[in-house]
Structure to design on (508 residues):
């Protein structure tokens, strides 16, 4: 087989000589290797205090977007729920009344919009499916919690705050 | 027997006990920290700065855990096991000289709890008793893994005690005394025994690893084969006692090795300091510091070896003990005898 690197070393199997059978030189060699690691720089990132930088296309928590006038973009078409392979998204639609024009951009809106973060696999199909550019996975890591019910994120957590 | 003597001994005993418990406590942290460092991790760092409060947190955890005595176990022996392990671990330090004499007023205070003339035999006796703690605990658990671990501990300790004793004989041929205080005093300055007895020290070191049940000889608690070894059934502070006793034993073993082979409280330049007129008490304290530096190095070495060398197989362990170490130790006695005879030293 062709070697992938130049570090390949062919070892022959032969009986150990006296020096090798003494066992102690090998232990001393091993101690040398481990002590070297004592002074190595650690690559640990101290998580809650420090955070690794995300790549630009990182898919984190979802957020429901608003348009330039601060109205919700979502029209409750259900395409995101349909495209979701984990079936994590549920929603209820409602019709916009005349005095709600400043709240919702379209005539139909989502009165309830819930994502179960335990089911979500953060594949990003919902943001691809959305025709209104209303949902993006641009948030942070989904945080831990104590209750299963607390992982169902409603509009209170998902909706982008007003500017 | 005057009052001052009693006060002096009480203070010394509490200090030695406190120091050995404190060192054992922080050895647990050091073990985890060094394990982390040697494996390019950081180790525990959440409790206090650099994780310094971790041993306290562990202690509180162990105390508050549920105490379980298995229904099939013999409950009195089950409790006796860890108590005995802890007791024998704690009393071993009684004969170790922690420094030269302090002079307070007109009193000469030796920094040694008991200077008995068979000091090293006492330590051997106590260490041998330590096996009973493991043996009784493992047997009383009524669990086959515990029993296997206990049997392994017993046979391992017996095998390695022979080599340890034989290694020591060649040292005693040189020193001509069993008293640890005199052995320590003989190694003035840099005339440490390790330079005269390198092979003996090596054998003693290997046996010390086996006696304290440390990797590469930690077969009594070999997780991969025996669940937890002799303490499989133990929980709460009884388990804590077993683990703690192991760390105290490391401390004692380190102290014994430092005393016997690495010059105890002697450090190079000691005579020079006395010549330029530095007080005896200051030199004594410096000597104690030197002794503790040596002990801490040995503790570090124990941990260092643990995270380097994999565990032996049981037959390899026995083979090493009986086929290699004991003949080597006997050869060492013969060589030492010949050298003593030849140089008439």
């Amino acid at each position: 087989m062709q070697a992938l690197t130049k570090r390949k070393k062919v070892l022959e199997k032969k009986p150990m000589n006296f020096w090798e059978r003494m066992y102690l030189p090998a232990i001393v060699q091993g101690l040398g290797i481990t002590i070297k690691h004592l002074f190595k720089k650690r690559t640990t990132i101290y998580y809650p205090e420090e955070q690794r930088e995300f790549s630009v296309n990182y898919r984190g928590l979802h957020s429901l977007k608003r348009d330039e006038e601060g109205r919700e973009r979502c029209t409750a078409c259900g395409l995101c729920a349909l495209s979701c392979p984990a079936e994590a998204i549920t929603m209820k639609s409602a019709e916009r009344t005349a005095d709600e024009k400043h709240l919702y951009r379209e005539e139909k809106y989502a009165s309830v919009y819930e994502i179960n973060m335990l089911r979500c696999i953060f594949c990003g199909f919902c943001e691809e499916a959305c025709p209104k550019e209303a949902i993006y996975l641009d948030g942070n890591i989904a945080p831990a919690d104590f209750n299963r019910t607390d992982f169902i994120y409603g509009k209170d957590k998902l909706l982008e705050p007003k500017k | 027997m005057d009052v001052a003597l009693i006060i002096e001994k009480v203070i010394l005993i509490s200090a030695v006990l406190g120091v050995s418990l404190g060192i054992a406590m922080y050895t647990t942290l050091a073990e985890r920290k060094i394990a982390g460092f040697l494996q390019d991790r950081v180790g525990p760092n959440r409790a206090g700065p650099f994780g310094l409060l971790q041993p306290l947190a562990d202690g509180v955890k162990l105390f508050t855990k549920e105490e379980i005595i298995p229904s099939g176990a013999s409950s009195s022996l089950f409790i006796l096991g860890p108590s005995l392990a802890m007791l024998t671990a704690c009393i071993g330090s009684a004969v170790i000289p922690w420094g030269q004499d302090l002079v307070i007023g007109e009193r000469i205070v030796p920094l040694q709890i008991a200077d008995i003339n068979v000091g090293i035999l006492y330590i051997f006796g106590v260490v041998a008793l330590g096996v009973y703690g493991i043996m009784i605990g493992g047997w009383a658990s009524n669990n086959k893994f515990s029993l296997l671990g206990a049997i392994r501990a017993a046979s391992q300790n017996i095998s390695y005690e022979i080599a340890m004793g034989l290694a020591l004989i060649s040292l005693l041929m040189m020193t001509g005394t069993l008293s640890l205080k005199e052995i320590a005093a003989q190694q003035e300055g840099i005339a440490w025994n390790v330079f005269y007895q390198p092979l003996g020290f090596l054998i003693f070191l290997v046996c010390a690893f086996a006696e304290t049940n440390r990797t590469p000889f930690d077969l009594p608690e070999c997780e991969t084969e025996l669940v937890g070894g002799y303490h499989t059934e133990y929980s709460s502070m009884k388990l804590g006692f077993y683990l703690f006793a192991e760390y105290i034993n490391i401390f004692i073993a380190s102290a014994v090795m430092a005393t016997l082979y690495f010059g105890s409280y002697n450090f190079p330049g000691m005579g020079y300091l006395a010549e330029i007129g530095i007080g005896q008490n200051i030199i004594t304290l410096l000597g104690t510091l030197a002794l503790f530096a040596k002990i801490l190095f040995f503790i570090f070495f124990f941990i260092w070896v643990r995270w380097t060398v994999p565990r032996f197989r049981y037959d390899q362990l026995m083979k090493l003990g009986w086929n290699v170490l004991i003949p080597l130790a006997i050869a060492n006695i013969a060589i030492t005898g010949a050298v003593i005879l030849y140089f008439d030293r």
Remarks:
- Chain B has a mean pLDDT of 85.
- The interface with chain A takes residues 34, 37-42, 45, 202, 304-305, 307-309 of chain B (CB under 8 Å).
